Amino acid sequence: MEHTYDALVFGEPLIRFSPAGGCRLQDGGALSRYAGGAELNVAAGLAQLGAKSAYCTKLPDHALSRFLLGQAKARGVLLDPVIFDRRPEARLGVYYYEGAHAPARPSVVYDRKNTSVTSIVPEEIPEGIFDRARLFHTTGITLGIGRGPRETAVEMIDRFRENGAKISFDINYRANLWTDQEEREAVEPLLPLLDILFISEESLRRMFGRTGDLPVMMRAFAREYGISYLLSTIRTVRSPIRHEFTSMVYDRETDHFYTEAPYEIEVLDRIGSGDAYVAGALSGLLCADGSLELAMRRGNAMAALKCGIAGDLPSVTLTELERIMEWHAAGSKGEMER
Predict the structure, then answer these.
(1) How far is CA 337 from the centre of its chain?
(2) pLDDT tens readout for residues 189-216
(3) Mean pLDDT of the chain
(4) How far apart are CA 141 and CA 172, in angstroms?
């Protein structure tokens, strides 16, 4: 069967406001506005890399929502599964991000309680979408923002899986939403239903109580829950503006690990770089000649590239990404492309 979507992503979009570099939220001044939200970032990254990527959420029917959707549409995201909330109390989530230079650290202030998507129920999801996607992706953030999104995400996992879609999930722990043990209780029953899991070393240790080095934990976890692919990013923070980034991925069927030398990154805006990794990795698995090794390489390059782009959403072409991957593999550090 020919699918309408390569991937369908479910979650909450947010508007981000940020002061100019060096300015502080507490001191006033102009704020730049960006579209964001972990799942929207993934959908946008997938679309820019050539996947038929759709996004499902629930939004107020007003100008700020149209700004978000316009930003998504400009990046190629398919928006027909979006649900509009026309209640008087309909609300869109917002957050504020302040960058920093060492010894200070970047900080975030959230304003996302009682937003429209927290009122969603499974019955609102369009019935016709469940046999239209090759892959369904959501995150622990969606599970953590409220009972309605959690129940809806679980229902969507079940329905897409019944229709043959692969299921992808990013743990994406957020301490401002719940404790790691609360997330574990919500996520653990879903683990046997997953084909692809993005999980950090910290979550393996703190949330699931695993011990040993990263490959040992990944292998045991994948085998215990029957997950085909485990992907874990490895970020070394030298300072707020200097990072090193790579990942380790595990193929349970072949018992093989993939990794590569880390990217050395000069960070302009790290927000959304983890989501860019997810988008790059999933695109590598979804493309015609996809493989887990390609997923790892695309994911690393997407995350590294996103760190140099302002805002949450990635802005990239597949040609540009492949060029970055070639430079990295060759160890090239040319000054300028001209």
Answers:
(1) 29
(2) 999 999 999 999 999 999 999 999 999 9
(3) 95
(4) 6
Amino acid found at 139: T
- List Cβ neighbours of 271 (8 Å cut-off, separation of 6 or more): 16, 36, 97, 311, 312
201 class by beta-carbon count within 10 Å (0-12 exposed, 13-18 middle, 19+ buried): middle
Distance CA 8, CA 328 (A): 30
pLDDT (0 to 100) of residue 1: 62
For the four alpha carbons of 287, 292, 294 and 297, in that order, the dihedral sign comes to positive
Cα distance from N-terminal residue to C-terminal residue, the chain: 44
Residue 14 β-bridge partners? 36, 93
Other Cβ atoms closer than 10 A to 249: 25
Q: What is the dihedral of CA 83, 86, 88, 92, to 10 degrees?
A: 30
Burial 261-286 (b: 16+ CB within 10 A, else e): ebbebebebbbbbbbbbbbbbbbbbb
Q: What is the DSSP string of 191-214?
A: GGG-SEEE--HHHHHHTT---S-H
Average pLDDT over residues 175-200: 96
- Strand 53-56 with 5-10, pairing: parallel
pLDDT tens digits along 95-124 = 999 988 888 888 999 999 999 999 999 999
Amino acid identity, position 110: Y
DSSP 115-165: -GGGG--GGGS-GGGTTSEEEEEEEHHHHHT-HHHHHHHHHHHHHHHHTT-
Amino acid symbol at 236: T
Scored b (16 or more CB within 10 A) or e, 310-332 reads ebbbbebeeeebeebbeebeeee
Judge residue 162's burial from the number of C-beta atoms within 10 Å of its C-beta, 0-12 exposed, 13-18 middle, 19 or more buried.
Answer: exposed
Q: How many helices (H) and strands (E) does the chain have?
A: 10, 15
Q: What is the pLDDT of residues 125-142, one digit of tens each?
A: 998 999 999 999 999 999
- Please tell me the distance from the alpha carbon of residue 65 to that of residue 14, in angstroms, as a whole number: 9
